[in-house]
Design the sequence.
C-alpha cells in the first residue's frame, strides 16, 4: 500500500472517537431517511394489497330487514359481481365475572365458508364458527380480556343475558377500515341470531362490482341503480357507502402523515449534513500540518484532495454498514406499528430497493457535498500556512503603531462588557470566556444552531399541533355537551323518561332528541353522501354550535336545517339560504339551509333540525328513542359511572335500553387516535433533537480540541477541574439558549405548516391553530439538559488535560 | 452579582502560602538547609519520559533550595531539562520520584491535578515565553481571571486590583484592548500583570524574553528586578547569558543535573541582606491590598 493510502487508513483508525462521531453523524441521516423511505414504500404497497386481498365491498347498503330473495335480486343486478348479506347489530358484552360492559358490533354471516366479500383473516383458533359460537376481531381483545375457548356474556335488550364461547380470533381489514371510532366486531352465524333475540333476517348488503373496482364514479352509479331498484321494490336503504377496491379508506390520511415524516426525514439528512460539514471542517483544520508536510515532500493538490475524499467516502461506507440494516429494520418496525394501528397486514420483512438506493446516495453523496468545501480549501492551502497552523493567528506580531481593527462582532462584545462594567455590572471572567468563545467559530456556530433550532422548532410545533388537534376536538365536544346519552330500542314519552331518570342521584335534567338518517343528493338525484340529522329541542343548550354562516335552528323551522361545513366538500358554495336536495326515509325532499356550522364529519354529513319538526316527521311527538342527560359533575369518570348506573336503573325498571354511554366517550376515542399521529411526529421531533444535540456535542468536542492551549493556560493560572468544566458547559448552554430563542421564532411558521398538513389529512379542512406553553417549556428544559449533557464529555476531556500535554500540543 | 468573597481565604491556615485542599504540613528541608523559610525545596527529583523509542531520564536527581526573595536564573542548553525542572516547581508536571516542597507545601503528595491548579492560582505567577493571554479577553479581563479562579479578593474589588497591576506594568491605557491589538512586548507585560494579580510570593518565568526584541526584554527584566527587590521570589529560565548577570543567583543545568549554582559559590547576595525581609514581603507596595 502506498504511504498516502496508509495515512488515510491511519486517519480512519487512529482517532476512533472522531471516526465514530463522523460515522455516526452520517449514519443518523441515513438511518432516518431509510426508516421513512422504507416505511413509506412498505405501507403504500402493503396497505393497498392487504386491503384489496380481503375483497372489500364496493357498495355497502344499510337497509331495513330483508331476506334471501332480496339478496338474490341484488345479485342479479347488472354490474354486480358478488353480493352478500349480513345482519349487523350491537350488543353489550362482558367477560363473565367482570363488571365492565363493552359494546360489540355483531355481524351475522350466512356462511363463513362461502364468504367472498370483506373476507376475514384467521388469527387464532377456528375461522368457521358453528351455531352459538362467536369469532372476535383481534382489536376486540383490547377491550375484552378473553382467549379462544373463553366465554362471553351478552346482555340482550330485554335485560336477559346469554353466553357464547369464543372459538376464534380473526382480522377484518375491511369492516370499519375508515372509521377510527368503530366499535370492536364479533362474528356469528345466522342461526345464532335467534338465541340472541334477533330476527332471522339481513339488514346489510355488501356488493362488489364487475369492471373497474377502483372507479368511484362508476361504483356510485352502480350503487344508485341498485338503490333505485331496491326502493322501487319497497326496500328502504337507510345509508350507503361506496369504496374502491385497492384504496384503503385511510390511505390519504396515512400518506399525508408519511409525507410529513418524509419531509422531516429529509430535514434530518440536512441537519446531519451540517453536522458532517462541521466535523470534517474541524478534521481538516487538525490535519493542516499533515497537509503542509505532504506538500513539503512533493504531494500535489490533487493527491491531497483524493486522499481526503477517499477518507470521507470511507466514513460514508462505514455509516452505510451501520445504518442500512438498522434503517431496514426501523422501516419495517414503523410500518408494522402503523399497520397495527390501521388494522392491515404487511406482506413481510423485505429490503425496499428504493429506500436502499436513497440510503446509499445519502450515505455517500451528502458527506461528499458537505465535506467538499473543507477538503478543497484544505488541499489548496500553502505549505507555509499549513505548517504555521492556527498558532500564527494567535501569536500575532502586531506593533503598537500598527492600527488593527477588531471584527465588528468582537468589538460589540467587548463594548457591551465595558458598558455593563461602567454601570457596576461585572460578569465573571470565566463566563465572559464562555460567552465570547460561543461566537469565535461563527460558521460552526451557525451550523450547530441550525440543527438545534430546527429540532427545537419542530419539537415545539408538534406540541402546538397536538393542542390544536385537541382544541379542535374540544370544539367538536360543544356538539356533545350532554353527560350521558341513552338510546332505547323503543320510543318512550319524554316526561316518563325524565321522571325515571331524575330518581338517579346526580341527574339534573333530561332532553329527548330525534334522529333522521338520510342522504345528500346532487341536482340529478344522485347520492353525494350520507346525512345524519339530529333533532335536539331548538332551545337546547347541549349543542354549542360554531356558526360559520347564517343561524342556528329555531322551533318553528319546517324543512330547514343547519348543516356542517363538511357539506361544502360536495357543494363548495353552500351558504345559509341555499336549498339542498335530501332523501329521508326514501323520500326526496328539498330543505333550506339556515346555517352552516363548523364540524369534523365522520361517516356522513351532520345536520341539525329542531326536535319540534323532526318528531312530527317521525310520528314521535313528545316521545323519543334517544335521550341526553345532564349530571351535576361533568368529569369523564362521573359520566361513566352515571351511564352505568342509569343503564342498570332503566333496565331494572323494564325499559329496553340499547346503549347508555358517557357523553365524551366517542370524543375521547377520537383524541386517542389523534394522539397516535402526534406520537409519530414526536418521534421525529426527538430524532431531530438528538441530531441537534449530537451536533452540539461534536461542536463542543471540536472547540475543546482547538482550545486545548487556552484550557492549559486557564489551568496554569488557577482553574481547577470544576472551573474548566463550567466554562465548557456554559458555552454549550449558551448555544442551547440561543437555539431556543431561534426555535421559538421558527416554531410559529412550523406550527402553522404542520397543523395545516395534519388537519387537511385528518379533517379535510384547515383548522384554527392553537399555541401552548407546554412545548416551549419542555423544549427549554430539554435543550438545557441536552446542551449540558452534550458538553459534559468535552468538558471532562478538557478538565483531564494536563498542562504538560497542552505544551506538548503546542 | 456575586457575593463578596473573603479575600485570601487560606491566610488563616498559612500566613504566607495558600494551599486549598492540600496537606499543609510544613516540610523541613531534607538536608536541613532552607528549612521552613525556603520558598522552593526539591530533593532527589527524577523525571523520566517514556516513549516508543525507550526511556529518557530528563532530571537525574535534582536537589535545590531557593530562599524567599531570590531572583534566580536557570540556564542550560536546549534539552538540558530546565523547562522540565520549572514544570516540577509549578506543578505543571509531576516527578517520577523525589519531593517538591513549595512554600512549605508538598505539592505532589496526595494532591490531584485539579487541586494543584487551584493551589497554583493562589501561590504562583507563571509567565510563558509566548505570553499565553486568552485571546477572547481584554488585557484587564486577562488580569482579573486568576482572581476569579483562585477566588481571591472581593468580586467587586477585582477590576481595581487588575487595573492596579496593569498600571504597574504601564498598560493602563490598553486595559480594554484585546491581546490581538497590542504588541508582543505589551502582551508579555500584561502576562506579568496577570501573574501578579493574586499577589503570589513566587513568580516563575519560562523564557520570558525569548520572543521579544531587546528593548521589550529589558523592560521585563527591569520589572523582575523590581519585583525581586520588593520581596517576590522570581525564578526565570533563560537561554540568554546576558540576563544572568542581572539575577541574584544563577543555576546551570546540563543533562538533567545542576552543574553550576552561584549560591554554592557564596557570591550571591542573600535575601536576608535585602532591604525587605521575607516577612515584610506581604506589605510591599505592589501587593498592597485594600482591606
Sequence:
Amino acid at each position: 500500500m502506498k504511504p498516502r493510502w496508509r495515512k488515510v487508513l491511519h486517519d480512519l483508525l487512529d482517532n476512533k472517537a472522531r471516526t465514530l462521531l463522523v460515522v455516526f453523524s452520517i449514519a443518523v441521516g441515513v438511518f432516518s431517511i431509510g426508516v421513512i423511505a422504507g416505511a413509506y414504500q412498505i405501507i403504500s404497497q402493503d396497505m393497498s394489497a392487504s386491503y384489496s386481498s380481503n375483497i372489500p365491498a364496493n357498495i355497502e347498503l344499510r337497509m331495513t330487514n330483508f331476506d334471501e330473495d332480496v339478496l338474490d335480486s341484488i345479485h342479479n343486478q347488472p354490474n354486480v359481481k358478488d353480493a352478500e348479506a349480513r345482519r349487523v347489530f350491537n350488543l353489550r358484552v362482558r367477560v363473565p365475572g367482570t363488571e365492565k360492559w363493552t359494546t360489540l358490533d355483531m355481524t351475522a354471516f350466512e356462511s363463513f365458508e362461502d364468504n367472498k366479500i370483506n373476507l376475514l383473516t384467521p388469527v387464532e383458533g377456528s375461522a368457521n364458527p358453528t351455531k352459538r359460537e362467536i369469532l372476535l376481531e383481534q382489536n376486540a381483545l383490547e377491550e375484552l380480556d378473553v382467549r379462544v375457548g373463553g366465554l362471553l356474556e351478552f346482555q340482550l335488550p330485554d335485560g336477559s343475558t346469554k353466553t357464547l364461547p369464543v372459538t376464534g380470533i380473526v382480522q377484518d381489514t375491511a369492516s370499519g377500515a375508515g372509521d377510527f371510532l368503530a366499535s370492536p366486531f364479533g362474528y356469528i352465524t345466522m342461526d345464532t341470531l335467534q338465541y340472541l333475540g334477533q330476527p332471522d333476517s339481513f339488514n346489510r348488503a355488501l356488493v362488489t362490482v364487475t369492471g373497474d373496482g377502483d372507479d368511484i364514479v362508476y361504483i356510485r352509479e352502480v350503487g344508485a341503480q341498485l338503490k333505485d331498484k331496491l326502493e322501487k321494490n319497497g326496500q328502504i336503504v337507510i345509508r350507503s357507502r361506496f369504496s374502491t377496491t385497492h384504496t384503503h379508506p385511510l390511505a390519504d390520511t396515512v400518506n399525508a402523515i408519511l409525507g410529513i415524516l418524509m419531509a422531516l426525514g429529509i430535514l434530518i439528512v440536512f441537519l446531519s449534513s451540517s453536522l458532517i460539514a462541521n466535523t470534517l471542517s474541524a478534521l481538516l483544520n487538525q490535519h493542516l500540518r499533515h497537509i503542509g508536510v505532504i506538500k513539503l515532500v512533493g504531494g500535489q493538490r490533487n493527491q491531497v484532495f483524493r486522499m481526503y475524499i477517499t477518507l470521507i467516502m470511507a466514513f460514508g461506507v462505514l455509516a452505510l454498514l451501520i445504518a442500512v440494516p438498522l434503517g431496514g429494520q426501523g422501516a419495517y418496525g414503523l410500518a408494522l406499528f402503523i399497520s397495527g394501528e390501521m388494522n392491515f397486514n404487511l406482506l413481510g420483512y423485505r429490503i425496499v430497493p428504493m429506500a436502499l438506493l436513497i440510503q446509499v446516495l445519502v450515505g455517500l453523496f451528502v458527506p461528499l457535498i458537505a465535506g467538499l468545501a473543507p477538503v478543497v480549501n484544505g488541499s489548496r492551502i500553502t505549505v507555509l500556512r499549513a505548517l504555521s497552523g492556527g498558532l500564527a493567528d494567535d501569536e500575532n506580531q502586531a506593533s503598537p503603531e500598527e492600527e488593527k481593527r477588531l471584527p465588528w462582532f468582537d468589538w460589540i462584545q467587548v463594548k457591551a462588557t465595558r458598558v455593563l462594567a461602567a454601570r457596576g455590572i461585572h460578569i465573571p471572567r470565566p463566563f465572559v470566556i464562555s460567552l465570547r468563545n460561543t461566537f469565535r467559530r461563527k460558521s460552526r456556530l451557525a451550523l450547530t444552531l441550525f440543527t438545534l433550532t430546527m429540532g427545537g422548532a419542530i419539537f415545539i410545533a408538534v406540541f402546538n399541533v397536538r393542542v390544536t388537534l385537541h382544541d379542535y376536538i374540544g370544539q367538536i365536544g360543544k356538539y356533545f355537551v350532554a353527560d350521558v346519552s341513552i338510546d332505547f330500542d323503543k320510543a318512550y314519552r319524554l316526561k316518563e323518561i325524565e321522571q325515571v331518570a331524575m330518581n338517579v342521584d346526580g341527574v339534573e335534567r333530561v332532553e329527548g332528541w330525534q334522529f333522521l338518517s338520510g342522504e345528500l343528493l346532487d341536482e340529478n338525484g344522485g347520492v353525494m353522501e350520507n346525512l345524519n340529522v339530529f333533532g335536539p329541542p331548538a332551545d337546547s343548550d347541549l349543542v354549542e354550535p360554531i356558526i360559520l354562516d347564517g343561524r342556528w335552528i329555531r322551533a318553528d323551522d319546517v324543512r330547514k336545517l343547519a348543516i356542517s361545513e363538511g357539506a361544502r366538500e360536495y357543494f363548495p358554495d353552500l351558504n345559509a339560504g341555499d336549498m339542498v336536495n335530501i332523501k329521508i326515509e326514501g323520500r326526496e325532499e328539498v330543505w333550506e339551509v339556515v346555517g352552516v356550522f363548523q364540524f369534523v364529519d365522520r361517516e356522513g354529513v351532520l345536520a341539525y333540525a329542531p326536535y319540534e319538526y323532526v318528531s312530527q316527521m317521525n310520528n314521535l311527538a313528545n316521545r323519543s328513542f334517544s335521550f341526553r342527560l345532564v349530571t351535576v359533575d361533568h368529569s369523564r369518570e362521573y359520566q361513566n359511572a352515571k351511564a352505568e348506573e342509569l343503564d342498570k336503573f332503566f333496565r331494572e325498571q323494564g325499559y329496553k335500553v340499547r346503549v347508555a354511554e358517557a357523553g365524551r366517550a366517542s370524543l375521547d376515542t377520537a383524541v386517542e387516535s389523534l394522539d397516535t399521529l402526534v406520537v409519530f411526529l414526536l418521534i421525529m421531533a426527538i430524532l431531530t433533537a438528538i441530531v441537534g444535540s449530537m451536533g452540539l456535542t461534536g461542536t463542543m468536542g471540536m472547540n475543546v480540541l482547538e482550545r486545548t492551549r487556552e484550557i492549559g493556560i486557564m489551568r496554569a493560572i488557577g482553574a481547577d477541574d470544576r472551573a474548566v468544566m463550567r466554562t465548557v458547559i456554559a458555552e454549550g448552554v449558551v448555544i442551547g439558549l440561543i437555539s431556543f430563542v431561534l426555535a421559538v421564532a421558527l416554531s410559529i411558521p412550523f406550527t402553522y405548516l404542520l397543523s395545516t398538513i395534519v388537519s387537511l389529512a385528518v379533517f379535510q379542512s384547515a383548522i384554527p391553530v392553537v399555541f401552548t406553553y407546554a412545548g416551549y417549556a419542555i423544549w427549554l428544559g430539554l435543550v438545557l439538559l441536552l446542551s449540558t449533557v452534550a458538553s459534559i464529555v468535552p468538558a471532562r476531556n478538557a478538565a483531564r488535560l494536563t498542562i504538560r500535554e497542552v505544551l506538548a500540543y503546542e | 452579582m456575586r457575593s463578596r468573597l473573603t479575600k485570601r481565604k487560606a491566610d488563616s491556615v498559612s500566613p504566607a502560602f495558600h494551599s486549598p485542599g492540600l496537606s499543609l504540613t510544613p516540610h523541613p528541608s531534607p538536608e536541613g538547609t532552607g528549612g521552613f523559610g525556603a520558598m522552593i525545596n526539591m530533593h532527589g527529583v527524577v523525571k523520566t519520559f517514556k516513549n516508543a523509542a525507550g526511556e529518557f531520564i530528563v532530571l537525574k536527581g535534582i536537589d535545590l533550595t531557593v530562599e524567599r526573595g531570590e531572583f534566580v536564573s536557570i540556564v542550560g542548553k536546549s534539552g538540558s531539562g530546565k523547562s522540565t525542572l520549572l514544570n516540577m516547581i509549578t506543578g505543571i508536571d509531576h516527578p517520577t520520584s523525589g519531593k517538591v516542597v513549595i512554600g512549605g507545601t508538598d505539592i505532589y503528595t496526595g494532591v490531584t491535578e485539579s487541586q494543584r491548579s487551584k493551589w497554583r492560582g493562589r501561590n504562583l505567577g507563571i509567565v510563558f515565553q509566548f505570553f499565553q493571554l486568552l485571546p477572547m479577553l481584554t488585557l484587564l479581563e486577562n488580569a482579573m481571571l486568576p482572581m476569579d479562579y483562585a477566588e481571591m479578593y472581593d468580586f467587586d474589588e477585582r477590576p481595581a486590583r487588575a487595573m492596579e497591576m496593569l498600571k504597574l506594568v504601564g498598560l493602563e491605557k490598553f486595559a480594554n484592548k484585546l491581546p490581538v491589538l497590542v504588541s508582543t512586548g505589551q502582551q508579555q507585560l500584561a502576562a506579568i500583570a496577570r501573574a501578579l494579580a493574586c499577589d503570589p510570593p513566587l513568580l516563575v518565568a519560562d523564557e520570558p524574553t525569548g520572543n521579544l526584541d531587546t528593548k521589550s526584554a529589558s523592560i521585563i527584566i527591569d520589572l523582575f528586578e523590581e519585583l525581586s527587590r520588593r520581596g517576590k521570589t522570581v525564578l526565570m529560565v533563560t537561554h540568554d547569558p546576558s540576563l544572568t548577570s542581572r539575577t541574584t543567583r544563577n543555576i546551570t543545568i546540563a543533562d538533567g543535573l545542576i552543574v553550576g549554582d552561584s549560591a554554592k559559590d557564596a557570591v550571591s547576595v542573600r535575601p536576608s541582606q535585602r532591604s525587605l525581609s521575607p516577612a515584610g514581603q506581604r506589605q510591599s507596595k505592589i501587593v498592597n491590598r485594600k482591606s
